[in-house]
Write a structure and sequence with these properties.
two-stranded antiparallel sheet, elongated, about 210 residues, mainly alpha, about 5% strand
């Protein structure tokens, strides 16, 4: 074979190899990775590729007003978490006493019954207050109102005497708080109510409140 015929022979060999590989590829079984599946959406008759982009986080410097608002909310949340268990125990006790007092019309018998449970009242009222701040005490009084439907002034007035209640009211005034704390879950105390429900879900408390706004 002359050197002149080598390129022609090489071309023929390459052609045969190409045809052979093409036939094998055509007859080969399609693999699981030969097709890529993508999500799509039909929009106004047109099929468009659908993909979900990664989250984009935008951070900004808090203003002084926002910082104060966050600090105030955290303070309130802490106060509710600390005082709600006391308010709940007090509410259960006082609701029970109030239910019993409804069936006692004689003043002497009422006072005798109240005196018989005075130790329980002192335990629920006095002991927690010694370890609370003034702000926490104010929140506690609101929560007792929530649980019983009565403010602390009316409760003390009912259980002891009007004079005793006025004395407690005067002491509370000097500590920058008020025994006549109202509770409105739909207005000024909406944040407190939201936190109370958070505490109830967290610890599995059932609702015992007798407040008309709930």
């Amino acid at each position: 074979m002359s050197l002149y015929n080598v390129p022609i022979l090489l071309k023929r060999i390459l052609l045969v190899v190409f045809i052979t590989l093409s036939c094998k590829a055509a007859s080969a079984q399609i693999g699981i990775y030969d097709t890529l599946q993508i999500r799509a959406i039909v929009y106004e008759g047109d099929t468009i590729i659908l993909s979900t982009l990664s989250n984009i986080y935008v951070y900004a410097q808090l203003t002084d007003a926002q910082k104060r608002a966050i600090a105030a909310y955290n303070r309130l949340r802490n106060a509710v978490y600390v005082t709600y268990p006391f308010a709940r125990k007090s509410g259960i006790l006082m609701n029970d006493i109030n239910d019993k007092l409804r069936s006692i019309n004689d003043n002497t018998l009422r006072k005798r019954y109240i005196n018989s449970r005075e130790k329980e009242l002192k335990k629920e009222f006095t002991t927690p207050l010694t370890n609370l701040s003034v702000y926490q005490g104010k929140i506690l009084m609101k929560l007792i109102n929530r649980e019983t439907g009565d403010n602390c002034y009316e409760i003390i007035k009912e259980y002891k005497s009007g004079l005793t209640a006025r004395i407690y009211q005067t002491v509370a005034f000097f500590f920058d708080t008020n025994l006549k704390q109202s509770y409105n879950s739909n207005d000024e105390d909406r944040a407190i109510e939201r936190i109370v429900q958070e505490v109830q879900r967290l610890y599995g408390y059932t609702e015992i409140s007798k407040h008309s706004s709930l």
